[in-house]
Amino acid sequence: MNTSFLIELTVLILAAFLGVEVISKVPTLLHTPLMSGTNAIHGIVLVGAIVVAGIPGQPLWLHIVTLAAVALGTGNVVGGFVVTDRMLEMFKRRKPTPAEEAEQQK
């Protein structure tokens, strides 16, 4: 095997273990704001995948990989913003139901 491949594989495995350890230690209250910031970073990754996909003369397998990267990146960014929006909705005052309004007027 190529030495650089083994080094890159080792770094990938160590980064995966480190990522799991760091994320598992994040308190529940901080998870959604942290995810919101991560979406901004992932948006940059999405732009990079689009740029690579647009380079002419690329082999077919690279087009397939960049298509998958764009699709998965888009899903991640959209999903993250949906979760962030739902989190922010929790802090808005909800409108009282007609039964609650009647109860308050008594």
What would the average pLDDT be, to the nearest integer?
A: 82
Our Rg estimate from Cα atoms comes to: 22 Å
N-to-C CA distance: 80 Å
Number of strands: 0
Helix content: over 70%
The SSE order reads HHHH
Strand composition percent? under 5%
Shape: elongated
Q: In terms of per-residue confidence, which ranges show pLDDT below 50 for 5 or more consecutive residues?
A: none
- Profile the largest sheet: none
Note the total helix count. 4
Q: Structural class, judged by helices and strands? A: mainly alpha
Can you tag this structure with a few keywords?
106 residues; 81% helix; mainly alpha
Blueprint (SSEs and pairs):
Blueprint: H1 3-24, H2 28-53, H3 60-89, H4 98-105
Verbal overview:
This protein has 106 residues and is mainly alpha-helical. The protein has a domain at 28-92. Helix content is 81%, strand content 0%. It has helices spanning 3-24, 28-53, 60-89, 98-105. The longest helix has 30 residues, at 60-89. The model has no long low-confidence stretch (mean pLDDT 82).
Can you summarize this structure?
The protein has 106 residues and is mostly helical. The relative contact order is 0.08.
